[in-house]
Write a structure and sequence with these properties.
This protein is an alpha/beta fold and 506 residues long. It is 29% helix and 27% strand. An 8-stranded mixed sheet has the order 7-6-5-3-4-8-9-20, sandwiched between helices. Strands 15, 16, 17, 18, 19, 21, 22 and 23 form an 8-stranded antiparallel sheet that branches. Helix 2 (29-45) crosses helix 5 and helix 8 (240-250) crosses helix 9 (259-271). Residues 9-372 form the AMP-dependent synthetase/ligase domain.
């Protein structure tokens, strides 16, 4: 079913029901979709054509969801820009995607430095004086004022399943962020699993602390909730106390997050166990495998079902556990969803047997079309219709999958992908750096932390502090090395390749 059509049906069924609660604002389904219609019509009047790109550069807020849906409604393509990224990454994404419109928050406009990146209009999402947009001259408009002037046009572009819906930029192992192109088909399938597999109902309230800039936050949680007529509690950012308060205040039934969030919640709850979280029916986790100690501790603390799932931006989510059977297993990420095919391919290029490891190859209705403007990488990643994930796993005799490692050189900190190569390229800009290697080291809270090994040039010195200071403002804060070790040499193999596996365990 078309995403917009499904949302329209919920507005007709539940016009006066709360759709979203955010901070001090609440919108009913009727109010939400009237805003969507007006924003869509406003974009069309200003010249948006089918497949034109619309960039959203904002932290979580109701307007983020409005603009996302309005863009799809008008036939455009959403470009999601993660506000946590560094300046060079933001510049690259906006230059690479060439948006017709940019929707941004006031406090993020400084990152644009008056550059509209060729966009015809830049819309400010908050109520604000237009003087705050003076650097953008004639391209700047107030989003809310523009929408209020617009009519409510009940129409929707007739988009096909394979038409592009959204581009999410994600870190790769090398180079600049990759633009993952998802069609309407992927959104439709992804959001339908929220109700179909995890049994979210119109009567339930869900909580989203995940950034809407990620596929996890907007597709699986936000749209998945609105697709069935549920009520979405949207957090601007994650903080354990604020999240626990929302669970109690709104009697939240289902919550999504990553292991780091749940560990922080458990640590806070242990000290301040005054919160009533008895309404929780289900807690969903992604981003890293859950070990038995975290599962046991969570079950003891919150007394509710926690399940894990496996997914990636290129295919949203593809495995999880049967909620009705309560079949969660430590370190496993479940069985494949109906309609998903998975193969494990070993180093010899053959399909792995039971309990044998191999790279995860998959086919799924939620698969991407490819990487934006990168045919070579697309052809390397998708072969004969199979998406090569770069993740190594094994399958037991009952069909449960277990994550082993990444064959790709990625760091995952708090559920977010980080490219070591990107940080290494930055560090090599320092004159005193002779060699460097960036790896992820195991961490109980974040899963992995970023560590940089630095070999100074002969006769030169460099400090750990100077490394960290140099990185600030050039990459996202979460990518800055938290640990820096100055060393005389790096371990290498016969060909001179740096042996990062030794650095990870040293």
């Amino acid at each position: 079913m078309n995403v917009i059509k499904a949302m329209m049906e919920q507005a007709e069924k539940y016009p006066d029901k709360p759709a979203i609660h955010f901070q001090n604002e609440s919108l009913t389904y009727k109010e939400l979709y009237e805003r969507v219609y007006r924003a869509s019509y406003m974009m069309r009047l200003m010249g948006l054509q089918p497949d034109d790109r619309v960039a959203i550069f904002s932290n979580n807020r109701i307007e983020w969801i409005e603009v996302f849906l309005a863009t799809l409604h008008a036939g455009g393509v959403v470009v999601s820009v993660n506000p946590q990224l560094g300046q060079s990454e933001i510049n690259y994404i906006l230059n690479h995607s060439e948006p017709k419109f940019i929707f941004a928050e006031t406090d993020l406009l400084g990152n644009l430095h008056g550059n509209s990146f060729g966009a015809e209009k830049v819309f400010l999402m908050e109520e604000s004086f237009i003087s705050e947009l003076e650097n953008f001259s004639q391209t700047a408009l107030s989003y809310r004022a523009s929408v209020e002037k617009s009519e409510k046009a009940i129409y929707s572009m007739n988009r096909k399943e394979e038409d592009v819906a959204v581009i999410f930029y994600t870190s790769g192992t090398v180079g600049q962020p990759k633009g993952v192109v998802l069609p309407h088909r992927a959104l439709q399938w992804g959001i339908s699993q929220t109700s179909g597999y995890w049994k979210v109902t119109p009567e339930e309230t869900t909580l989203n602390p995940m950034p809407l800039a990620f596929a996890y936050g907007i597709v699986i949680v936000a749209l998945g909730t609105l697709f069935v007529g549920g009520t979405l509690i949207l957090a601007r950012k994650f903080h354990p106390k604020a999240i626990l308060e929302k669970i109690e205040t709104y009697r939240v039934n289902v919550m999504w997050g990553v292991p780091t969030m749940y560990i922080m919640m458990m640590n806070f709850f242990k000290e301040y166990d005054k919160f009533n979280v008895s309404s929780l029916r289900l807690v969903v986790c992604a981003g890293a495998p859950l070990n038995s100690s975290i599962l046991d501790r969570f079950n003891r603390t919150f007394k509710t079902l926690m399940i894990d799932y496996y997914g990636l931006t290129e295919a949203t989510y593809i495995t999880s556990f049967d909620v009705e059977k309560n079949a969660m297993r430590p370190l496993s990420f479940g069985k494949s969803f109906p309609g998903v095919e998975i193969r494990l391919i070993n180093k010899e290029g053959r399909e792995a047997g039971v309990d044998e490891t191999g790279e995860i190859w998959l086919k799924a209705p939620s698969m991407m079309i490819g990487y934006y403007k990168n045919l070579l990488l697309t052809e390397e990643t998708i072969q004969d219709g199979w998406l090569k994930t770069g993740d190594i796993a094994y399958r037991d005799e009952e069909g449960f999958y277990y994550f082993i490692e990444r064959s790709k050189d990625l760091i995952i900190r708090g559920g977010i992908n980080i490219s070591p190569t990107e940080i290494e390229d930055l560090l090599y800009q320092l004159d005193n750096v002779g060699e460097c290697a960036v790896v992820g080291i195991s961490d109980e809270l974040f899963g992995e932390r970023v560590k940089a090994y630095i070999v100074p040039k002969r006769g030169k010195t460099i400090s750990e502090h100077s490394i960290v200071e140099f990185c600030k403002g050039k990459v996202a804060d979460y990518k800055i090395p938290e640990i820096v070790e100055i060393c005389e040499k790096l371990p290498k193999g016969p060909t001179g390749k740096i042996l990062k596996r030794l650095l990870r365990t040293s």
